[in-house]
Specification:
The protein has about 110 residues and is an alpha/beta fold. Helix content is about 35%, strand content about 20%. A 5-stranded mixed beta sheet has the order 2-1-3-5-4, with helices on both faces.
Length: about 110
């Protein structure tokens, strides 16, 4: 896939990150989830994948809204709607895309 994708938490899940990196052209790691989500919304990145499994509401709430308002999608790694509860109690991998490549990115993220 000829995409630029940001993958966060590469140290937390090295095997998953290695599998993702084999399927795409470039991984970028900026270290600021909200900025990376805004880059997805405006088209600078095609997708964002968080493989840590530990999200914080304050890191993703605004970016999720911005992506969705721009026509993108934000789900868990299974394609289920990402619910922003007060806490992310369960381990969740987040996948955010421009909406066009969402299914392809989900397949890559599930490796």
């Amino acid at each position: 896939m000829e995409s630029s994708i940001s993958v966060y938490g590469y140290r937390h899940n090295v095997n998953k990150t290695a599998n993702i990196s084999q399927a795409i052209r470039r991984i970028r790691i900026l270290g600021c989830i909200s900025l990376e989500l805004c880059y997805v919304a405006c088209g600078k990145l095609d997708a964002y994948i968080d493989v840590r499994g530990s999200l914080r509401l304050t890191d993703v709430a605004a970016g999720k809204l911005i992506i969705e308002e721009a026509g993108g999608m934000v789900t868990d790694e299974k394609g289920c709607k990402l619910l922003l509860n007060d806490n992310f109690i369960n381990q969740v991998y987040m996948v955010a895309t421009n909406g066009i490549f969402h299914q392809s990115i989900l397949e890559i993220a599930g490796r």
